[in-house]
Each structure stands twice: as structure tokens, then as C-alpha cells.
Amino acid sequence: MAVPRNALRKWEKVREFALGLPGAAEEFPWGESVAKVGRKVFVFLGVTDGSHPMGVTLKLTDEAAHAHALSCPGAERAAYGLGRSGWVSIPLGEQGAPGAELLCEWVEESYRAIAPRRLAAELDAR
């Protein structure tokens, strides 16, 4: 399965943004990329090898953002019970998928929902 170039560009921007947040680090549990703050994942970035459709999974606690994310083409509540806690999986290669700027806003919201207060405050101070 070929990775759509526009999806890969969005993914790269989202990954770079996520890893630029205070205390963020990339790990590869289950063979997929995730961004963590401390020991907690704030965005699942998946894989870029074409074995699965490109997408991101993040936690959106703001009702409007959550509803907006779920209205994106192909988006769905995250699997493994994470959807009950506000996690949404958003494919990047779908026609009409959100742009990198909006995805980065959602990554920041997910980060703020998970990061310790002192790191969120560090982000505010930037």
C-alpha cells in the first residue's frame, strides 16, 4: 500500500510539532511511533511503512474539538476502550482530512490533557 505524499507531509509536521513540546519523547511500543510526556502517550502516530493507513490518535477533551474530529472522513473513536476517554483516530490520507495546522492544535490539546501542569505551564510561557 503506497503512502499518499500529502498524508506523509501532514504526519511529518504533526510528529515534529509533538516532539517539540516540553518533555516530549518518541518511543516505538508495538512497532508504532508514539509521542509521550513522562510515561504517558499523548499521541499515537502509527507507522509510515504503508502496512496500515496513515493516521493519528489523540485525546480531545474539548467537546467541540472532539465532535469536529469525529466528523472528519474516516475518523472514529479509538479502539481498545480508549474512545470512552475521548481518544479519536483520524486518518490522514482521506479526501477532506484535516490539515496539519488543525492536527497540531489537537495534538496540543491532547498534550495538555496528559502533561504534568508544570510542563503545560512551560508551554504557556513560550
From TrEMBL:
Entry keyword set: DNA-binding
InterPro entries: YjbR-like_sf, YjbR/MT2646/Rv2570-like
A family per Pfam: YjbR
Gene Ontology molecular function, alphabetical: DNA binding
Domain of life: Bacteria
Name by which UniProt lists this protein: MmcQ/YjbR family DNA-binding protein
Organism of origin: Streptomyces griseicoloratus
